[in-house]
Amino acid sequence: MEGNHFSSRIADITATANIIPQRRVSFSSTCISDEWTPLLKPNIKSHGKSKTNDSSSLQLHRPSVSLVPVRSTPVRRVSLRNESFREEGYFGTKFSKRQIFALVSMLLLYFADFAILSIMEPFFPLEAEAKGVSPAINGLVFSVYSFVIVVMSPVYSKCIPIVNPRTLYLVGISLNVFSNICFGMIQFINEQSVFIVVSFGLRVFGALGAACYLTVIYAVVPALFPTCMNLINGLLEAAVGIGMCIGPVLGVGLYSLGGFSLPFFVLGTFMLFTVPICWFTFPKDVQPSIQDTPKGVSNVLSKPGVVLSYLVLACVSFSESTLFPTFQPHLDDIGLSIDLIGWIYFLLNATYTIASPLVGLAVDRFQAPECFMIAGLSIMTISLFFLGHSPLLPNISPEMMIYQDIISVCLLGLACALCIIPTFAAMLKHTKEEGEPIDLGTAAVCSGLWSASYAIGEMTGPLYAGLMSEYFSFGTLTTFTALVPLLLIVILIMFLFIRFSKKMKARAQIFTATPYKTI
Questions:
Q1: 256 CB-contact burial (10 Å; exposed 0-12 / middle 13-18 / buried 19+)
Q2: Membrane-crossing residues (predicted)?
């Protein structure tokens, strides 16, 4: 009797609830950062025909029907290996030998390149002055380097999906090595006009090579290190900072031993040794495929999030480069010696070097690049406001101004790391969200525009600073400069608010359209 009663009870419940057999509908989902969207095809699993004896799947309820929305679990996997975009947490993962060798060669290349760039600033003006070259021409020799990178980086980005990236990479390094070694021999040119022409020509050749391999590196990093792209970018920027720190110190020592040519010969030869290393360590599997078609620059720049990332990068390089022609005279005015001035510049580069990999680690961990940018821009605004002591602040003694400048310089180095490191990953993220396939072609265009954006700020900053310094004090100059990151903070917050509102509306629509399961 009990068995018959039990069977009839189950039949009543089943008939009343009309769930023969019970089906559970669950949606897979994909996620980039904090967004998810359900796939088109639901994954339907029939529990009525399950072959396993799972006691938890058989539950007795009173005859009732309740509707519960099925929760969708976001899957944090994005892959970028030419055709796919993968992004997953890298804690607990290990780099392969191929990744380690490629990373080491890139770090050596970055160190050598920026070490050579850093020794030109203190030595070339002295040599140019000895040849009778005016300061205006001297400034143009420096500016043409950034101008060529601005023009050529997008051009190289169009070539990467067509030409073998490895070939472009090695050709760029070779051009840069050739120009740097030859630049050390311009001291033997006595004719002023020939000296100027050769200086311009070698700087153009060096910029052609630098734009080439910098564009290739940032294009292949997402494919080679899909799980920790921001960390790798942080390590590369740390190599930049180390080169900028060690380069002047090493250059001064070599200059005292062998004059103008020796620093360029030694560092150029060191960079030459990286060519065979880069030849063997460049990933052979990162090759253009049929799907990797060249992308239009205008197509990438049509996305607001991408444009904002470029503006942040240009703002950082612009704000930092305004200090190149003006900061050293300001420190002279408050009575600092040459040695102390060198240490203050060292603090700026050292802070950036230490902070860069840590910021990359944090960005990969929290997946919120815009938040890091806003934090960096806020710190930059404060540091520029206090650097040189804004005229809006109460007057302080020169001794207090020295300490204030030291703290401001350290904050500026931290702010640069917070703003620069997340930009490239943010560009790819916004490009993906707008429906653009993330392949080698898209990454190449983003890489070329990244290099061009930084070079634009680096080119316009000294021009702006030189013009403003003729009419205003250093403190007034930095106060006006602080308005640039402040304006970007407002724009970024408005962008995030609009984006958040659209996201909430989209999620509400998905929630209302999600099928319900019957219990």
A1: exposed
A2: 100-124, 136-156, 168-189, 195-221, 233-254, 260-280, 340-359, 371-394, 406-428, 477-498
| C-alpha span between 347 and 330 (Å, rounded) | 17
Q: How far is CA 505 from the centre of its chain?
A: 30
pLDDT digit string, tens, across residues 321-346: 888 878 888 888 888 887 788 788 88
Q: Which domains does the chain have, with CATH numbers?
A: 97-506 (1.20.1250.20)
Placement of tokens 């590369």 in the chain: 236
Secondary structure letter of residue 188 according to DSSP: G
Nearest to 221 by CA among 317, 213, 38: 213
Q: DSSP character for 335?
A: T
Considering only the C-alpha atoms of the chain, give the largest distance between any 2 of them, rounded to a whole number of Å: 116
Q: How far apart are CA 244 and CA 248, in angstroms?
A: 7
Dist CA 517 CA 66 (whole Å): 8
Mean pLDDT of the chain: 78
Compute the CA torsion angle 305, 308, 312, 315 (nearest 10 deg): 170
Examine the pLDDT at 65 and tell me if it is beyond 60.
no
**Residue 371: CB atoms within 10 Å:** 15
Q: Which residue has the tokens 């101004």?
A: 401
CA dist 484 to 97, 320, 450, 456, Å?
43, 12, 19, 15
Q: How confident is the model at residue 158 (pLDDT cuts 50, 70, 90)?
A: confident
13 confidence band (pLDDT: 50, 70, 90): very low
Q: State pLDDT tens for residues 365-415.
A: 888 888 999 999 999 999 999 998 888 888 888 888 889 999 999 999 999
Which amino acid makes up residue 421? I
Full-model pTM: 0.73
Can you tell me the distance from the alpha carbon of 310 to that of 492, in angstroms, rounded to the nearest whole number? 12
Determine the Cα–Cα distance for residues 98 and 100; give it in Å rounded to an integer.
6
Q: For residues 51 and 400, what is the distance between their CA atoms, to the nearest angstrom?
A: 78
Which residue in 303, 157, 176 sits closest to 217, CA to CA? 157
Contacting residues for 229 by C-beta, under 8 A, at least 6 apart: 87, 221, 222, 364, 424, 425, 428
- For residues 465 and 468, what is the distance between their CA atoms, to the nearest angstrom? 5
Dist. CA 225–CA 276, nearest whole Å: 22
CA dihedral 337, 120, 244, 348 (to 10 degrees): 40
Question: Residue 469, Cβ neighbours under 10 Å: how many?
Answer: 17
Burial letters 166-181, b for 16+ CB under 10 A, else e: bebbbbbbbbbbbbbb
How far does Cα 26 stand from its chain's mean position?
Answer: 37
Task: Please report which helix (H) or strand (E) contains residue 44, including its range.
Answer: strand 43-46
* 265 pLDDT more than 60: yes
Q: Quick one: pLDDT band at residue 505, thresholds 50, 70, 90?
A: confident
